[in-house]
Write a structure and sequence with these properties.
Radius of gyration: 32 Å
Distance between the termini: 78 Å
Structural class: mainly alpha
Number of strands: 12
Shape: elongated
Largest sheet: 3 strands, parallel
Strand order of the largest sheet: 1-2-3
Order of helices and strands: EHEHEHEHEEEEHEHEEHHHEHHHHHHHHH
Helix content: 40-55%
Strand content: 5-15%
Number of helices: 18
Length: 470
């Protein structure tokens, strides 16, 4: 068996969206599972729409997902001479011809072909260049077969047959000498020795057209595997309103790359009852036999659930680093060294209730709040009546505490409420307002422990010194 070589070939006209990320993942997994190579090609021949920013976003997105590629990145725009060489070769062998039709003539012929229910054919297909007009402008077209069928034995879709009579004479090279997508992709895949082309099923008809080019060149056609597209939760084609965002957006929302790999691979592929699977586990079983033929639906609840699984198992130091980066770069909250230390110590407790890094940042916010914490509205209401004198008595008792652990503090707070002969809510509400300003936080014993003795007493002191009446 020849070596398995797959490729991901995005166009750098935008971000690496979630569908493209899944395609890259499937190519990467298949190559790695079979002990082959995974290559990256940037299809940047559309110079008007290709941008350096988009190229960087694609590469960065793949790096974040952990999809490392073998060999150097191929930039299609740098291979124009090779594409022209093959177009000329097809002219010489009779597999292609020069078409001198004007745009108006092409439009009229297309309309006629549509009315007659046939494929587009140029009259220049059977003419010679000696009859070309003066100062000619021409394109190079593939001389497609007029009869017979093209069979695609797709690894996912099965055997799919296309009638040759229904396929147009494709343009291979434009009048300005630039190659079309159809020619460039065939030449590049051949030269890169791609063995398996794995891509969305919206390219299935392109497989038939490209097979004709392979045949005309006498080249071996790669194996095709066309995977169903991702749809939105409502079953409709994925759009921005569904979440057709760049993969970096999911990173910024606080998803972990290993969780995204797990979620994306299950979005169109299955193996027995495997739901949660590490990348190492996937590499042992990944194959085309597990591919679904029907479109998959994006499910944000499922994505968050899988992410929560990986987050709960993640190393606390790593989570703390990601959370602090999220706070500073995404939330744009100032975090000093002292507050950062509190956040690091909080991970083991806080991650149990979080699903994303963004959740962790929100739950850690009370730890980094600058003093004095502003109190107004709902946060000020619990501090009315006898709440402040009770907090003053609690502060005095806390000052003498030496065992500053969460469970010991929790017991102390409950005992204090019993001694005050009030329900815990009468103590808990004003204490939470004083310590967090209404921000999300764990139980009060844990909150005091995470803030530390000095900060807890200081926040209580702020409220007692400057109570806010509303």
């Amino acid at each position: 068996m020849s070596e398995v070589i797959t490729r991901f070939a995005p166009s750098p006209t935008g971000f690496l969206h979630i569908g493209g990320a899944r395609t890259a993942l499937f190519n990467w997994l298949y190559a790695r599972a079979k002990g082959g190579k995974f290559l990256l090609r940037i299809e940047d021949t559309d110079m008007a729409r290709s941008t350096m920013k988009a190229k960087a976003a694609i590469i960065e997105g793949m790096q974040w997902l952990g999809l490392d590629h073998d060999e150097e990145i191929i930039y299609q725009s740098q291979r124009a001479d090779r594409h022209s060489e093959i177009a000329e070769q097809l002219l010489q062998t009779g597999g292609a011809y020069r078409c001198f039709m004007t745009p108006d003539e092409v439009m009229a012929e297309r309309a006629s072909a549509r009315l007659q229910g046939r494929a587009f054919r140029s009259p220049w297909r059977e003419r010679t260049q000696t009859s070309a007009p003066d100062n000619p402008s021409f394109v190079i077209r593939l001389k497609a077969p007029l009869s017979g069928n093209t069979l695609i034995n797709d690894q996912v879709q099965g055997a799919v047959t296309f009638a040759n009579a229904e396929m147009d004479d494709l343009i291979l090279q434009r009048a300005d000498g630039t190659p079309t997508y159809m020619l460039a992709v065939v030449v590049d895949d051949h030269d890169m020795q791609i063995s398996h082309i794995i891509r969305g099923d919206d390219h299935l008809v392109n497989a038939a057209r490209q097979s004709l080019i392979y045949e005309a060149l006498g080249w071996k056609t790669p194996a095709f595997a066309h995977i169903p597209l991702i749809h939105g939760p409502d079953g409709k084609k994925l759009s921005k309103r569904h979440g057709a965002l760049g993969i970096e957006a999911y990173r910024d929302m606080g998803y972990l790359p290993e969780a995204m790999r797990n979620y994306l691979v299950r979005l169109g592929w299955a193996h027995k009852d495997m739901e949660i699977a590490s990348t190492d586990e996937l590499l042992k079983v990944f194959d085309f036999s597990g591919m679904n033929k029907a479109p998959s639906r994006l499910d944000f609840d499922k994505m968050a659930s899988i992410n929560a699984h990986y987050l709960h198992q993640a190393d606390d130091d790593r989570l703390a680093t990601l959370t602090l980066e999220h706070m500073r770069n995404i939330k744009q909250w100032p975090v000093d060294k002292v507050a950062a230390k509190r956040v690091r110590m909080a991970m083991q407790i806080l991650k149990k209730r979080a699903k994303t890094i963004s959740d962790l940042a929100d739950q850690s916010y009370f730890l980094i709040r600058e003093r004095p914490i502003p109190l107004s509205g709902k946060t000020a209401k619990p501090l009315k009546g006898d709440a402040l004198p009770r907090l003053a008595r609690l502060r005095n008792e806390l000052e003498s505490v030496t065992d500053w652990r969460a469970d010991a503090l929790g017991t102390l707070l409950q005992d204090f409420a019993d001694k005050e002969e009030v329900g815990f809510g009468k103590l808990g509400q004003p204490l939470r307002a004083a310590l967090t300003g209404g921000a999300p936080a764990p139980d009060l014993g844990a909150s005091c422990a995470l803030l530390g003795r000095k900060e807890t007493l200081a926040r209580l002191g702020d409220v007692l010194a400057h109570p806010k009446e509303d």
